[in-house]
Amino acid sequence: MAKVTVYYFRVWNQDRRQHLISARPATRERIESLKGNLIEDTAQEVESSRLDSAGFLSYTLPKAFKLPTQFQ
After folding, report:
1. Residue 70 has what pLDDT?
2. Which of 13, 35, 42, 70 is most buried, taking the most CB atoms under 10 A from its CB?
3. Rounded CA gap, 7 and 60, in Å?
């Protein structure tokens, strides 16, 4: 399986007039498309199968986790 590097990044939020740090890491290409600034020291090498279709690292919930009804 192919490995890719993902990073957390900063983006400018015009409404808040401040930089925000991403909640999930993404590929360099995705960060560049968002005009974000990647944070080099957050680099993680992961299997490419762990990325979602937008280039962000997907997280899976533990099997025991049950979503509240309003989110199902």
Report:
1. 57
2. 42
3. 18
